[in-house]
Design goal:
5-stranded antiparallel β-sheet, single chain, Beta-lactam/transpept-like, 11 helices, about 400 residues, SH3 type barrels, Beta-lactamase
C-alpha cells in the first residue's frame, strides 16, 4: 500500500477503538462534557426569572447551548420539570424551562434563576406611566413624577381648554377665526414646525382648527385656538398653568400652547416665559388626559379618525396603534390619543384603550424611540393588575 493511501486508511480507523475484541465507534470528543440524568420529575408550572447576568439554557446532555440568559433580560421562564444531572462526580439540580411563547426552551441550573415573574421594564422610555382611567390610580410608573419636555402631547391641555370654551355649542364650533399673524402663516409653511397651511387673512372655523391641532398636530392651529379661547397667546398660556394648578398638577409648567419650545417659537414671535419648554411629568400628563376624556368623551371618537380633509387639506393622525396601522392589536382596542415629537422631547405618546372586561387604561411614554411597541407592552402589563377589572 502506498504511503499516502496508508495514512488515509489509518486516519479513517482512528475513529474506532477495540473493546473486548469488538470494533466500536470512538466516543465523540464532546462526550466527556455530557451530563447524565440521575432522575427527572414533573413539577407544578412555576414562574422564574434570571437571578443575575450569568447562565445559559442547554439541551439536557449539555452538548448544545440553546441561549444565553443575557439575550432575555426581562423574560419570565416557566419550569415544568426538575432533574438531577451528573457531570463527572458532581450532581446538580436543573430545571426544564420555556419562555411565554414557548419558542425558547431547555435545561438550566436552578441557581441561575429565582422564583417569580420577571420585573416589568420599559427599556427605551425615559419616563412612563400607566393609569386606571376610572380611578385615577397609577398602576405602573418609571420616573413618573419627573417633569420632562412633552412636545405636542401639550396639545391635550389646549384641546381641553378649547372644548371647555366651545361648551358644546354649534355657534362656537362654527365660529370663524381670521388669521392675521404673519408669524403663524410662516410657521404653517415650515417643514419642521408647520403642517396645516394657513393663508393670511383667511378665516377658519374653530372646528377646522380643532381637527388640525388634534389629528395633524398643527402647532399654528393650536396657537390660533389658544388666542381665540383667551384673547392672546400669553393669556392662554397663563390659563393653561392656572388649569394645571387647579388640578393640583405640581409637576406641570407650560410656556407654549403647541408644545414647540421657545427656541423654535422665538423666530415666529410666539416665545413666552423664561423656560425653554413645557415640562410635565408622565403622571401629570396622564391626569390631563383623564380630565380630557372624562369631561369631553368625544375625543375618543375623534381620536380614532385616521385622516380627514380639513379646508381642502389632509390631516393625518399619526397614532399607529389604531386599527389598520402597523402596531395595531385588536385586543387592546386603542382609540386614542396623542403623539408628540421634538428633538428635545423625543418621541412621546399618550395612549388609551379599554380591553374587554377591564377599566380604561391611559398610558404615557416620554422620550421613547419605540413609543408604540412599548405602549403595547405597558398596556398589557397594566391590564394584569387586579384593580383594572370591572
Amino acid at each position: 500500500m502506498q504511503k499516502a493511501h496508508l495514512n488515509r486508511y489509518l486516519a479513517a480507523f482512528a475513529v474506532v477503538i477495540t473493546l473486548g475484541g469488538v470494533i466500536s465507534p470512538a466516543v465523540p470528543v464532546n462526550a466527556a462534557t455530557r451530563y447524565k440524568t440521575v432522575s427527572t420529575k414533573s413539577i407544578k408550572k412555576t414562574a422564574y426569572h434570571k437571578k443575575s447576568r450569568r447562565g445559559a439554557i442547554f439541551n439536557k446532555t449539555h452538548t448544545r447551548k440553546v441561549s444565553n440568559l443575557t439575550a432575555h433580560p426581562n423574560t419570565t421562564w416557566y419550569a415544568s420539570k426538575r432533574a438531577t444531572l451528573k457531570h463527572g462526580n458532581t450532581k446538580a439540580i436543573y430545571l426544564y424551562v420555556k419562555n411565554g411563547k414557548g419558542n425558547v426552551k431547555g435545561w438550566i441550573w436552578h441557581n441561575y434563576l429565582k422564583k417569580g415573574k420577571a420585573p416589568f421594564v420599559l427599556s427605551k422610555a425615559k419616563a412612563a406611566v400607566a393609569m386606571d382611567a376610572k380611578t385615577g390610580k397609577v398602576v405602573w410608573g418609571k420616573h413618573a413624577n419627573t417633569a420632562r419636555p412633552i412636545a405636542s402631547v401639550s396639545k391635550l391641555m389646549t384641546l381641553y381648554l378649547t372644548l371647555k370654551k366651545i361648551d358644546g355649542k354649534s355657534s362656537n364650533w362654527n365660529h370663524k377665526i381670521k388669521i392675521k399673524s404673519r408669524g403663524l402663516v410662516s410657521m404653517s409653511r415650515s417643514a419642521a414646525c408647520g403642517g396645516f397651511h394657513f393663508k393670511l387673512n383667511h378665516k377658519y372655523t374653530v372646528r377646522q382648527l380643532y381637527y388640525a391641532a388634534f389629528l395633524d398636530s398643527s402647532n399654528n392651529a393650536a396657537i390660533a385656538l389658544g388666542q381665540w379661547v383667551s384673547g392672546s397667546n400669553a393669556k392662554f398660556i397663563r390659563q393653561m398653568n392656572a388649569q394645571a394648578k387647579s388640578w393640583k398638577l405640581g409637576r406641570a409648567h407650560f410656556v407654549s400652547a403647541s408644545g414647540l419650545e421657545n427656541s423654535d417659537l422665538r423666530g415666529y414671535g410666539y416665545a413666552y416665559g423664561k423656560a425653554n419648554a413645557n415640562k410635565v411629568s408622565a403622571k401629570d400628563v396622564a391626569l390631563i388626559a383623564r380630565h380630557l376624556i372624562r369631561s369631553y368623551p368625544r375625543v375618543l371618537k375623534d381620536g380614532k379618525i385616521k385622516s380627514m380633509k380639513v379646508n381642502g387639506q389632509t390631516c393625518h393622525n399619526y397614532n399607529n396603534l389604531l386599527k389598520g396601522r402597523k402596531y395595531y392589536r385588536a385586543s387592546l382596542k386603542v382609540d386614542g390619543l396623542k403623539t408628540g415629537y421634538t428633538p428635545l422631547a423625543g418621541y412621546c405618546f399618550v395612549g388609551t384603550g379599554q380591553k374587554s372586561g377591564k377599566h380604561r387604561v391611559i398610558t404615557v411614554v416620554l422620550h421613547d424611540e419605540n413609543e408604540f411597541t412599548e405602549t403595547r407592552s405597558l398596556m398589557n402589563h397594566a391590564y394584569g393588575y387586579r384593580s383594572m377589572n370591572d
